[in-house]
Specification:
The structure holds two protein chains of two kinds. In chain A, strands 2-1-3 form a three-stranded mixed β-sheet, with helices on one face. Chain A is about 35% helix and about 30% strand. In chain A, helix 1 crosses helix 2. Chain A is α+β, with helices and mostly antiparallel strands. Chain B is α/β, with parallel strands linked by helices. Chain B has a single domain, classed as Rossmann fold. In chain B, helix 2 packs parallel to helix 3. The C terminus of chain B is likely disordered. Classes of the chains: A alpha+beta, B alpha/beta. At the A-B interface, helix 1, strand 1, strand 3 and strand 4 of A face strand 1 and helix 6 of B.
Chain lengths: ~90, ~230
């Protein structure tokens, strides 16, 4: 059971990115999770809320995409902001 | 406010991977061959290591790091071999991470070692995800565990370089089917080298020692990754 520490790593990466973007509200964090990664999806989702608690991405949802191999990668975050739409992709097209 | 998608593309374990890469570089420069052992609890990692440290210790300068959730029992046991041993007590963490290895190596003169063994916490799941900077990862499977372990825990077998089937002296008693076990290992990791041993009777140990010695010399004479020529 190392899903909580994995969840904390994901939260750290997402928070770093949010800080860089200057955005304040994160709706979702997208993760590619390899079937051979050794991480159990259900346990990761279970740990997610706890890992987010008290961080700037508290309340964000974790969207997991199953992929082959050992990959474990945060692919994107979905943010709510009034920034320049040209600098980031729109959800509908992204 | 409109939701927008920001591309990130970052590996979840990037911090561990970076630390592991730095460790691997450090090991290479020090000329120490690093072997890690992973398996379920009770499959004979410590017994195998005890014999290995004692035997290889006659020819090489060997040492070990050993990880457990609690107690220093394993370190105490391994110290009987006469080799330097350090225990990593992980508390509640079910695996070793590169950072723990780095911390445990503090003030250790790696250049004074030929082979360093890292015994991971007994666990067939979590250690699979964490690179420790080792050159060779051995996964142990004892005959009492059943032939289908590799199919049940493919990740750990998939990340390892050598599979060692232990407690072969008990194989007949538990009706262990070596052929099926080997087939299962090769299903999850095609082409994997499989070694059968008994730490108790010594069966197969000679061969394992030879493999380790070979690994050590091939590393020693391999060109360093950054292209520099290292002397000594």
């Amino acid at each position: 059971m190392h899903e909580l520490s994995i969840a904390v790593n994901i939260v750290d990466i997402a928070c770093e990115e949010v800080e860089r973007q200057g955005d304040s509200l994160v709706d979702a964090v997208y993760l590619n999770l390899g079937v051979l990664s050794g991480v159990v999806k259900e346990a990761l989702l279970f740990s997610w809320e706890l890992a987010c608690e008290g961080t700037r991405i508290a309340g964000a949802r974790l969207a997991i995409q199953d992929v082959p191999g050992r990959e474990m990668q945060v692919t994107a975050i979905e943010v709510f902001a009034d920034g320049d739409p040209e600098t980031v992709h729109d959800t509908a097209s992204g | 406010m409109t939701p927008r998608l920001v591309e990130v593309r970052k590996n979840v374990l990037k911090r561990n991977d970076e630390l592991a890469r730095a460790l691997r570089q450090r090991f290479r420069h020090a000329g120490v061959f690093v072997v890690s052992l992973v398996s379920s609890p009770g499959s004979g990692k410590t017994a195998l290591l005890e014999t290995t440290l004692r035997t290889l210790g006659e020819t090489y300068r060997v040492a070990a790091l050993v990880g457990d959730l609690a107690t220093e029992n394993d370190a105490a046991r391994l110290l009987r071999s006469g080799a330097p041993v350090r225990q990593i007590v992980t508390g509640t963490v079910c695996h070793l991470e590169a950072e723990m290895v780095e911390r445990a190596l503090d003030e250790w003169d790696l250049a004074a070692l030929d082979i360093l063994f890292i015994e991971n916490v007994g666990n067939l799941v979590c250690p699979a995800s964490y690179d420790l900077g080792e050159d060779l990862r051995m996964v142990l499977l004892s005959v009492t565990e059943g032939e289908d372990k590799p199919l049940k825990y493919p990740s750990i077998f998939n990340t390892a370089d050598i599979a060692v089937i232990t407690k072969m002296d008990l194989a007949d008693a538990v009706e262990f089917d070596l052929e099926t076990a080997a087939e299962n290992i090769l299903t999850v990791r095609p082409g994997m080298r499989i070694v059968t041993v008994s730490s108790k009777s010594g069966q197969g140990m000679e061969y394992l020692f030879k493999l380790l010695a070979q690994g050590r010399s091939s590393k020693r004479f391999a060109p360093p990754p950054d292209g520099q020529i290292l002397l000594g």
